[in-house]
Amino acid sequence: MAVLPAAVRPLQPPPGSKIDFGAEIDGVDLENLTDEQFTGIRNALYHYHVVVFKNQQKLSPKAQYELTKRFDPASDNYGHGKTLDAKRSILHPDLKTVPHQPQVQVIGNGFVPSYEGLENVQLRHPHHRTFHRDHIPDEKDYDFTRFYRWHIDAALYDLYPPQVTTLMAVEVPKGRRQTLLYDDGSGETLDVPLGTTAFVSGERMFELLSPEDQEFVRTSKIEYAPHPYIWMSSARSLPTGLGMYSENRELPESELPPIDPTKIMIFPMAWKNPVTGKLALQIHPSAVRRIHCADGTVIDDLERVRDIVYKLQRPAISPPYVYTHDWQDGDMVLFNNRGVLHSVVGAFKPDEVRLFRQCNLAASEPPVGP
C-alpha cells in the first residue's frame, strides 16, 4: 500500500478460518477525507474487499454518502432506484430513507422513537421464515439461525450494480450468539454474533473452482429476471440462502410491471477487480434467469440454471470461507459490492434494537468481465 501503510491492518482470521480478506483502517477522519487518504482507502478496499472503520459514532449521513459516491462520482441514485415502491417487492419492508439524505437508508430491528428526521420508526430485521421454504422451529429461533439471502446489492434491472456499499452501525444489541445452520445435509454449522453480516470473497469463490469450471465462468454470462424482486416474491429460498427452489412459483411476465427489454441485465459471471485485475465469481443466485454460453447457446431451463449456479457458488460459503462481522456501536464497514457476496443473518427479539445506516449507489458503468 503506497498510502496509509501503517493504518491498514488485515483482519486476523479466527481459529479454523481460511478467510483471506478484510482489514481495519485507523487514523482517518471520514468527515473530512483528503484525496490522498481516499486513494489509500480505495487501494485497501480493492485488495481487502471489506474495510472496517471503528468508532465512527459521529459520522454524518452526508459524509457516509459522500464516501460512497467518491468511488463512482457519476453515480447519484440509490442502488435499487424506485423498485422499493412496488409493494410486492421482497425488499419493500426492510428500508426507510433518511429524509435529508435520500441516498442513505435506515435498516435494523425494533422501535426507534426518533432518528435523523424519522419519527416513530418500526424497523424489521429480515427473518428467514419470510423467505425460506422451511424454517427453524419457533422455539429454537433465538438459539439457531440461517443465512437469510446471499446477494450482491443490485437492482439487476435497468440500473447497474453499485461499486461499493457502506454500512454504519448506530446501535447494536449486545450479548448472545447464535448457531447458524446450513440445513442442507452437509451438517455444517457456524457460531455467529447476534445479527452479524456475513461476507464471502468472490475471488475465493472463483479460485475454488476446477479449471474446467473456471473456464466456463470466464466465458459465460448471466441474464437476470426482469423486476427480479417482484418476480421472485412468491418463490422460496433454499436453507443455505444461496438461491431458490424451482417450484414454478415465480410470477409470470404478465403479472410484472411493464418490461423494457433494453433494461434486462446480462452480465459476465466473473467481474474484474479494477485495481488487481483478479476475477471474482459475482452472481446474485436468487435473481438468475438464464445462462448465455460461449458458443452462443442459452440455457433457459430455470431449474438447470439454478443448479449450475449453486454448484459453482456453494463451496465458497462453507464455514472456513465466511467472515461474520461482530458489529459494535460506531462500526462503519465499507465493502466491495463487485467482489463479495453478503447475507443478513440472525433472529432478534422484538425489544432488541438494531439501528444501521446503509448507502449504495447505482453505478455509472456495468461490471467488467475477463
UniProtKB/TrEMBL annotation:
Q: Where is the TauD/TfdA-like domain?
A: 8-358
Predominant place of localization: cytoplasm
Reactions that this protein is recorded to catalyse: xanthine + 2-oxoglutarate + O2 = urate + succinate + CO2
Q: Which cofactor does it need?
A: Fe(2+)
Question: Where does it sit, as one GO cellular component term?
Answer: cytosol
Which UniProt keywords are present, listed alphabetically? Answer: Cytoplasm, Dioxygenase, Iron, Metal-binding, Oxidoreductase
Write down what this protein is called.
Alpha-ketoglutarate-dependent xanthine dioxygenase xanA
Q: Which organism is it from?
A: Penicillium alfredii
